[in-house]
């Protein structure tokens, strides 16, 4: 154990000597969380729509969309709106021409051009727009029919407003708890982003540990350690422990930072801590596998960034797992991020405790139990080849 | 400055870069992997082809008011649909047991409730797996119900306004039969709008360009760290040639990686970016801007390691800000800042060329990139050379 | 014969420190000139100016009559530099390293290829020419490092401590090849802090300390400067400082210096002084392990001139 601690301590000391690490581990992640939060938080999930045109109908459509939960801005020209959407800065634009307004006032069916973007958010926006247009049209249809029956326009409008709540409605619900609506219910501005970023960055930072193991091997330190009464498992455990401490500190820092700065609610601290510990252990073990498998520091850092980003994307750190297609969701289960995501979701959204995330903790522990010995075995093999 | 020794040095650096696999990993493998993963992730959502069959349970459709609904569901959905008639409890159980995807439960006394001006609720119950097919079926039900609602509201309003007897019924059935007054048709999108895949390819290419160009210029610091720089300085070449050669290496690496990513990305994902000449102009300008940033970095960094770190940070920062992962929305300061970054200019420029734009249409993005390039070059000249001399 | 290298009053400051202060010397063709001095004496800065890496603040260095400096591209063609640190690309093969630097010198195929083969022969790396330099042993890397400097057959070869950290066998090989080169008419500037190397190789030697040339001449001329002094080295433990102080009071003792385990003295007429020196040292509670008496050498010259020992 002394050997393991000594190796871990040296690893930590070397990490702390390099100041640029501080930025990557402590400043950069928080900056990105803020940026992503600014983008998706607050109005997160809301569709961003543009209504082009200044007529009555345009006003009604804009009001309707706002009632339907969209963020609406008014645009002057179709070209501008098209460009804004092409650049992904809004999801959909409804174009209302003067002719549309006149026809609509006269009770003729009107088809409005809806310009939609290519992003995934645009899909939802299109849905909102089509529902709200139907609603606005129906109101007008009703009012016009009353007018046709000889009721003055003002009265017809007033009567229609009064009975707004009359008529059958549809209520949609889901069996069990895992519906999308419920899944995202109770999430604050940064909650979703913060939970995803913790896994993303902790994993990335851990993989950088592969390079430090390679350096130890290159410097001959590993060989020297093994010349003493130390086993390869102890060497790997020591290196992994050092990396684990860095990863856990970073994770805890992001959790605390987002809680203090942005009021992210992380739920039960014991449960969150347990998930973080389990996740960091897997991350550090993966780093040891790469550190034993690869012989070049440069290649290791390239592979680290690549694998770190790809695995994070697959594990739900870039897109919520709930939105994953089924087959990809199955693939995603091999990533530790997947299980951490599920566990954080259980804790932060549904108030779960340690007991509720035991399955996820179990899977993460199992991953560590496989990867760490694998790292030791690979390290033993690596010593047989020249660097 | 003699071009032959510059080329000799650049060729040596390119050879070393290729031997060190990390250029390939950072420049090609990682961005490709990300493009593929993102494409798998995002295109899985809302793709309109290949709908899965959907099973629906309906309860309470015996009510004459909703009797057409079962037929509409069975016949009018774009995917293969099976409809079972069950009672309310049975329909719920069927969803819970995953026998059906959606239950449509009409409450008892639905028709009479409407006729008496009430607001009965039809319940839709699904399994919550976010399936698109279920969403479509649900929206059909909602459309049907909203027509009913319109009729009953019209009747109620007519009563309020003083109409009586059969006139109300006539009005109600008239509006219920009528076609929707307002509907959406897909409008023309801007020619320059990239598809989802197009944005992915452009975004990842723009992001990783910064990593790739780092490999040339930063090796200047590596040469100092490993002791070969004095030897280059002692060779019969102009001192400036060394920096020029490194810059050339960066530029070539950046060009090759960007061309391969855009080319292979287009083939793999079936994306078109337009004609070659304007794309080439755009890519050359953007790679030059990315390279100029590394020239600033090596003025500030003390060691190659520091320079790599700084370059990664700037690259990721500019990439995220420039919309490599997701567009920065709205028209706030963040969006304006985003406009000033080379990745934003490249993505936007590729949109313009995709829409058939030529070099002249690229004036905006090229101006952005030119401004960035100019600022970086000035900075790299103004910042004193910290270490290279000593 | 015209000088290959002529340094005239070179001065180079880094901040307040004058790393090189008014250094002048010349080297003729076929001559090996040694710069002997401890670490930090100004050897590397002098070499940097001679090789055109640095401009002098004051003075000028001329190679074959033309001033050398960072911008003097054509003049650099006449110089071969072997930096103190290994200056080779570990991820290129030996042959690729040579070919690259040869091209930078303006050499072209097929001359370049023939010359690379020749140099590989000279440095004994023919068999390993296709292997990456990082797979070489330490001695092989050193040899490659020197080979690159010889490649373009410069008129002036500048060697900056080429034997530091080299095993005795490789060291001997390096010294032999330097001897051979000067035999071929090359002018060689050789810096070292090993006096044996300077004595063996150099036709003329300059002693440099604190950035200034303290003395210059052939080995014998330098030895004469000390006025026929002998050297006594007392190796042992105890309070060497106190012993040195005590020894300074002894008549016939000229200079005394000490480091961790050796007290070095220059004396007139060592044979008669050994006995009093030893007894004085013992009286000062130094316990002696070894006593060495040597005839005058460069070590004693350096001590005589600077009051410091040459070694680290």
Summarize this structure briefly.
Chain A has 387 residues and is of the alpha/beta class.
Provide a descriptive summary of the structure in words.
The complex is a heterotrimer of chains A (387), B (390) and C (312). In chain A, helix 1 crosses helix 11. Mean pLDDT of chain A is 82; it is low at 177-187. Chain A is built from 16 helices and 5 strands. Chain A is α/β, with parallel strands linked by helices. Chain B has 390 residues and is α/β, with parallel strands linked by helices. Chain B has 2 domains: 3-43 and 194-382, no CATH class; 54-177, 3-Layer(aba) Sandwich (abc type-2 transporter like fold). Chain B is built from 16 helices and 5 strands. The longest helix of chain B is centred in the middle third of the chain and has 31 residues, at 239-269. Chain B starts with a helix and ends in an 8-residue tail after the last helix. Chain C is of the alpha/beta class and 312 residues long. Chain C folds into 2 domains: 3-222, Rossmann fold; 229-295, 2-Layer Sandwich (Alpha-Beta Plaits). Chain C is 35% helix and 30% strand. In chain C, strand 7 (156-160), helix 6 and strand 8 form a beta-alpha-beta unit. In chain C, helix 9 crosses helix 10 (270-283). The model of chain C has no long low-confidence stretch (mean pLDDT 87). Classes of the chains: A alpha/beta (387), B alpha/beta (390), C alpha/beta (312). Chains in contact: A-B, B-C. Chain B binds chain C through residues 2, 4-5, 8-9, 12, 15-16, 19-20, 226-239, 389-390, and chain C through 14, 48, 51-54, 70-71, 73-77, 79, 81, 83, 85-92, 96, 100-101, 103-106, 148.
Features:
heterotrimer; B: 390 residues; alpha/beta; abc type-2 transporter like fold; 4-stranded mixed beta sheet; 5 strands; 65% helix; 7% strand; elongated; C: 312 residues; Rossmann fold; Alpha-Beta Plaits; 2 domains; 6-stranded mixed beta sheet; 4-stranded antiparallel beta sheet; 11 helices; 35% helix; 30% strand
Largest sheet of chain C, if any? 6 strands, mixed
- The overall strand count of chain C is 14
Counting helices, strands and paired strands, the structural category of chain C is: alpha/beta
Q: Please give the count of helices of chain C.
A: 11
Report the principal-axis shape of chain C: globular
Order of helices and strands of chain C: EEEHEEHEHHHEHEHEEHEHEEHEH
What can be said about the biggest beta sheet of chain B? 4 strands, mixed
By DSSP (H or I, 4+ residues per run), the number of helices of chain B equals 16
CATH superfamily of the largest domain in chain C: P-loop containing nucleotide triphosphate hydrolases
Strand order of the largest sheet of chain C: 6-7-8-3-9-10
Distance between the termini of chain B: 22 Å
* Mean pLDDT rating of chain C: 87
Strand percentage of chain B: 5-15%
- Widest sheet of chain B: strand order? 2-1-3-4
Note the run of SSEs of chain B as H and E.
Answer: HHEHEHEHEHHEHHHHHHHHH
Which percent bin holds the helix content of chain B? 55-70%
- The CATH architecture of the largest domain in chain C can be given as 3-Layer(aba) Sandwich
Q: What name does CATH use for the topology of the largest domain in chain C?
A: Rossmann fold
